[in-house]
């Protein structure tokens, strides 16, 4: 069953920089949460803290009552399986075919020797093909990953995360480098997984329109702190101006429209 994710007074400092500053959030099971903010707001650091790619300076993170920040060894590896991470850079092995890239998501279930040899069962291959089918990528299954478009590669990355059979998915700027058409396909894929599998999704976004269109809940960050936490309807243009300020909002709009071609509130 899905479980609650809780961040309690979580901070992460890099020397004098407070990348995440005393953040407390409770994410209900099955929510689709968009995290927005300018570059340097702390969005990526927060997701990396949840996945335990980095450790907090202070505070605690728990999932289903288990203290994530205390996990080590096998328990930590199991958490990273349960908490799938999707990156902006796709993190695929370009020389390998699409199907094998998806199957790499199953390596956490294998011993060392099996992992090194990348031996997968027929059941796992079926699981991988089913994941690709959900993301409209079966025709590309035997194609080298490096020959795909950016949008296709990101959907392969989502399929790889899906075969981990995670309890929660984190996506760090998954559409930042994509054109609007491919961005829509990626976001549609994440929403489908969220709704059909009841998997909690946290996604960092640069675009207000995308957050409003897809997310049950929006968290806005600035300088490492949570400045807004509510629904898309509550995130009015006036609230956005209060969060970013006129100068910050202008920079935010320029960055978004130059990379996504999407209009955001002025």
Automatic annotation (TrEMBL):
Coiled-coil annotated residue ranges, if any: none
UniProt xrefs under Gene3D superfamilies: P-loop containing nucleotide triphosphate hydrolases
Record bears the keyword Phosphoprotein: no
Transmembrane segments: none
ABC transporter domain location: 5-248
A Pfam match: ABC_tran
NCBIfam families recorded: ABC_phnC
Name this polypeptide is given: Phosphonate ABC transporter ATP-binding protein
Top-level taxonomy: Bacteria, Pseudomonadati, Pseudomonadota, Alphaproteobacteria, Rhodobacterales
């Amino acid at each position: 069953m899905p479980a609650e994710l809780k961040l309690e007074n979580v901070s992460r400092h890099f020397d004098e920089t407070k990348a995440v500053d005393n953040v407390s959030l409770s994410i209900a099971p099955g929510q689709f949460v968009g995290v927005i903010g300018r570059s340097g707001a702390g969005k990526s650091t927060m997701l990396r803290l949840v996945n335990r790619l980095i450790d907090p300076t202070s505070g605690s993170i728990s999932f289903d009552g288990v203290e994530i920040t205390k996990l080590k060894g096998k328990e930590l590896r199991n958490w990273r399986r349960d908490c799938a991470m999707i990156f902006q850079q796709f993190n695929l092995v370009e020389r390998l075919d699409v199907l094998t890239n998806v199957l790499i998501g199953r390596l956490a279930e294998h011993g060392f020797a099996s992992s090194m040899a990348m031996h997968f069962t027929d059941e796992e291959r079926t699981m991988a093909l089913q994941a690709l089918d959900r993301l409209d990528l079966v025709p590309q299954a035997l194609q080298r990953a490096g020959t795909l478009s950016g949008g296709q590669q990101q959907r392969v990355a989502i399929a790889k995360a899906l075969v981990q059979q995670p309890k929660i998915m984190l996506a760090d700027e998954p559409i930042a480098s994509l054109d609007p058409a491919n961005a829509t396909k990626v976001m549609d894929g994440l929403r489908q997984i969220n709704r059909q599998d009841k998997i909690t999704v946290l996604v960092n976004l640069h675009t207000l329109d995308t957050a409003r269109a897809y997310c049950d809940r929006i968290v806005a960050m600035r300088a490492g702190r949570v400045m807004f936490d509510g629904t898309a309807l509550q995130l009015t243009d006036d609230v956005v101006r209060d969060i970013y300020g006129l100068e910050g909002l202008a920079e935010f709009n320029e960055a978004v429209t130059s990379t996504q071609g999407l209009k955001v509130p002025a």
